[in-house]
C-alpha cells in the first residue's frame, strides 16, 4: 500500500494508477465470473446429476455476448492506457533537461550547467526532461513513485522521459532491466526540493571546493566510486569482471594488443590509455569489450587524481 506522500509524487501518478486499477478490475471480473461458471457446470453436469450425456445446441446470442463484452472491455483498457501514455511522449518545451548516463553498473546525471552527480536532484513543480544515454548495454530507468520507466538503448537517439515532481521528498531510482552481474547494485535516489532550494544547490560550489581541499588520493577514490569503477574492479586482489587494482601500480602485466601478447608496465600512460581506450590493451585472463571509453567524461585532472589513488593500493 502506497502512502499519500508517494501516491502523488508526480503528474503521471493518477493516470497510471487509473489504468492499473481498471485493468486489475477487469481481470478480477473475469477471474470471478469464469470461476463461478466453472463451479456451476461442475455441479450441474456431474455424473450423478447428469448420468446420460446430452447434446447442448449452440447459441448465437451467447456467442455475440461473449465476443462483444470482452472486446468493449479491451477497448476500455486501451483507451485509458493510451490517454495515460500519450502525454508521456511529449515533453514541454520549457522543461529542465538532465542527461542521464547508464553504464554497468551505475547512473550519473549531468545538468545543463555541467554539474554532475550520482543522485538525481530535482525542483518541485517544474517539468523535467531526462535525456537517456546507455553507454554499454540495455538498461531501464525506473522511478516507481513517479510511475515512469523507460528503456535506455545504446545508440538510440532522442530517447527520453519527462515528468513533473509534485512532492518534496526522496524516492528510489533503479535499473529495471537485467544488465549483468551486478545489476541489483544499479540503484540510487531522486531528491525533490523546493525550487528555491534547488536553485541554491545548482549554483553551490561548496562541494567542488571541498574536493579541491581533499588530497588527490581521496578525490581519485571518490571519482572512481561515482563512475562505478568498483562494480567491476576490486581493491583486495580478488577477481571480478576486470583485474583488481590491488598492487597493480608499477607491476608488469601481460596484455593482448592488436592480437599479440606483450608485457607492459602499469604506469601513467597505461592507466590513461586504459581509461580512454580500454580495449587497446586487454589484460590476460579477461574479456575484451566489457568496458567502454570514459573519454569526454573525465578531465585530465580527474585522471591524475585516479592515478594518485591507484598508487596507494599496495
Write the layout of secondary structure elements.
Layout: H1 4-7, H2 13-44, H3 60-85, E1 96-103, E2 106-111, E3 116-117, E4 120-123, E5 128-134, E6 139-143, E7 148-152, E8 160-163, E9 169-175, E10 187-193, H4 195-203, H5 206-213, H6 216-226, E11 252-257, E12 260-265, H7 268-276, E13 282-283, H8 300-311
Parallel strand pairs: 1-5, 4-10
Antiparallel strand pairs: 1-2, 2-3, 5-8, 6-7, 6-9, 9-10, 11-12, 11-13
Describe the structure using short key phrases.
314 residues; alpha+beta; Helix Hairpins; Immunoglobulin-like; Cytochrome Bc1 Complex, Chain D, domain 2; 3 domains; five-stranded mixed beta sheet; 8 helices; 13 strands; elongated; disordered N terminus; transmembrane helix
Number of domains: 3
Percent range for helical residues?
A: 25-40%
Summarize the main sheet. Answer: 5 strands, mixed
Instruction: Estimate the mean pLDDT confidence.
Output: 87
Instruction: Tell me the structural class.
Output: alpha+beta
Tell me the CATH superfamily of the largest domain: Cupredoxins -  blue copper proteins
User: Distance N terminus to C terminus?
Assistant: 50 Å
How many H/I helices?
8
Examine the secondary-structure arrangement and name the CATH architecture of the largest domain.
Answer: Sandwich
Low-pLDDT runs: 1-6, 208-212
CATH class of the largest domain: Mainly Beta
Element pattern in H and E? HHHEEEEEEEEEEHHHEEHEH
The best one-word shape is elongated
